[in-house]
What we know:
2 copies of one chain form a homodimer. The first copy, chain A, is globular, with a radius of gyration of 19 Å. Chain A is built from 9 helices and 5 strands, in the order βααβαβαβααβααα. Chain A is α/β, with parallel strands linked by helices. The first copy, chain A, has a single domain, classed as 3-Layer(aba) Sandwich (Rossmann fold), CATH 3.40.50.1110. In chain A, helix 3 runs parallel beside helix 4 and helix 4 runs parallel beside helix 6. In chain A, strands 2-1-3-4-5 form a 5-stranded parallel β-sheet, with helices on both faces. At the A-B interface, helix 2, strand 2 and helix 3 of A face helix 2, strand 2 and helix 3 of B. Chains A, B: Keywords: Hydrolase. Chains A, B: Belongs to the 'GDSL' lipolytic enzyme family.
Amino acid sequence: MRPSIVLFGDSITEEAFGEGGWGAELANHYSRSADVVLRGYSGYNTRWAAMVVRRAVVLGAAAAPAPAAVTVCFGANDASLPDRASRHQHVPLHEYKSNLRAICDTLTATWPRVVVILITPPPVHDAARVRYQYGDGCSGLPERTNEAAGEYARACVDVAAERGLRAIDIWSKMQRFPGWESSFLRDGLHLTPCGNRLVFEEVVFALKDASLGLDALPADLPLFCEMDPNNPVKSFDE
Amino acid sequence: MRPSIVLFGDSITEEAFGEGGWGAELANHYSRSADVVLRGYSGYNTRWAAMVVRRAVVLGAAAAPAPAAVTVCFGANDASLPDRASRHQHVPLHEYKSNLRAICDTLTATWPRVVVILITPPPVHDAARVRYQYGDGCSGLPERTNEAAGEYARACVDVAAERGLRAIDIWSKMQRFPGWESSFLRDGLHLTPCGNRLVFEEVVFALKDASLGLDALPADLPLFCEMDPNNPVKSFDE
């Protein structure tokens, strides 16, 4: 039975099977060795995620074997400014950290050997958020800022360190590339195919680091290229 | 618990989460309502598929609820010519039909209400198969032909009709478009993003026809756009 890798998060995760999406690439990468299970909930913050993690991830996988890994990517909505158009998604920083701890603790208490990988929110391009903003829409002020997203990204990395979990800091990694604002983000917040590619590569690296690389997972059923052309059926005897 | 849609087939299925792939698009389409499970085995013909269907599909899903639907797409390898480079993948037409029947019967005997959708092999562009051919490679003759693929496609449609199952005849549908050879096929055999799009649309149509459309499947957890901005947590009480 193949192991599964569950992707739990907000829209950065829910969209992960769209064009060039990091979830689809992951499913393609592990096409013969692991199932990639999508549990993305657009718009959700950690307050709501902590309320539903049991129903969305634990019960959803209850009948199947324990997942090998779960990625957890929240914070882009929590970091919405408390006095702007997306205020109802805002979660204060200290509560974000405690919600994230609760989510991780639920996963590791249920499956002691599961590899939990925290992914920070991506950076925000403030000017693009004015152009693409949500809600009433004509304030001329962004509802999310890069500065706020950065605080939540650092908090996410801190929680991972506290709990001894892996973290992928896409907020920092993306900003190392000149032109990150438009090459990685399509509306100042959500990922372009190029941004998805970066997340995919980081997740593959983290999984490999956790001994869940392609080399460590057996292929499900014999590979065609390894069958004996003179007696292919023999491969199925073993 | 979300229903699952299992994709069982050869490389046309194994590659379905690649660039623009029909499986990835399906997972994106059902991102909040169904799990798309990949069971693609490149190079496999129906002889091998019939040997492994229980292990690959039935046991793989044994602990989880019955899948709502299974797509079955084989024939591109069975239709390899018996005297050319891919001869060890060839399966005679009458055996192809009986293997396909056995696969379908296994699925419907295990899950009486499962929606099985047969997908024919795609058309073949003979000239491209000479350029991209497998094996020894310098015969100047294609190892697969469109004529042979067409016989297997018709046989696939016949088996679906016999068993009262839905069939998607991509061999015929693709050839209705002028320039199908290069717009739908990248090497005379495997699909381009455009070819993947056609398969995706046909599968979505077949699932909708089987009462498994988006409108018929509930979203997993409240949609953000339907939450009350003044009391979002209320959505989780129900």
